[in-house]
Sequence to fold (273 residues):
Amino acid sequence: MAYWLVAVWLALGMHAAQAQALRIGVLPYLSPRTLLVEFAPLREFLASELQQEVEILTASDLPRFLERSHAGDFDLVISAPHFARLAQTADGYLPLVAIRADFYALLLVPKNSPALTLHELRGKTLHLPHKLSFVSMQIEDFLRQRGLQPEHDLRLLYYSTDNNAILATENSAGDAGAAQRSVFERMPRDITSHLRIIGSTQSALSLIILAHPRLATTALPALQGALNKFPYSEPGLRFFQSSHSEFIPADAATMAQLDAYLPRLKLRLAQGP
Fold:
């Protein structure tokens, strides 16, 4: 009987420890394996600072990531800027810090394409990442600002990932495509060497870290303190050097600037796949 009680107590203790793990949901902009490596320094540091197990999680695609975020599957989310603003305004997530990197949405054409200017792309197919992605919306705005109407002047094809949009562009006959710079640079050289950049957006926020509102009165102060220390730690230096990024405040003004993306995002979510 005593042995059975001890076994039950140990099982309950293990379950409680598992339940206390800090679950970080990361936007699926890279493969799960690559995301685990990319955010390993942050996981390592938070686990040490908070004396708590930390898990890095993601989702199969962007719609599923939004679903899981909305359902509260994650304690923290590391999300695209427009997704972050939606999570804040719709679900009460609390912005903690923004990550600014050399984020450029690149406009690409095959190396042998005759197109030298954006206007020479009229009538072509534009291969884009997922229609919900920040990259696609930024490229669409980039073209509008330069006198092209993407929906009318080009044939838009959306893909599940940046990688797939890049591959479709490489295999096309004179079409164009778009991708996040950091993803493009990770592609094999025998693919990127067949493409050239014909335009790029300005640098922008790449990701925003937010806390689920359930953390507001419990773990949030310690978590915010740990994030403030992270840039000055050895794991933090590794992270920022490898990702060519930095933390900046996710203040009210920064978040409000993202409101311009919400009507388009909500419309595309309502339209479904």
Observations:
- Residues 1-19 have pLDDT under 50 and may be disordered.
- The first strand starts at residue 22 and ends at 26.
- The two ends are 56 Å apart (CA to CA).
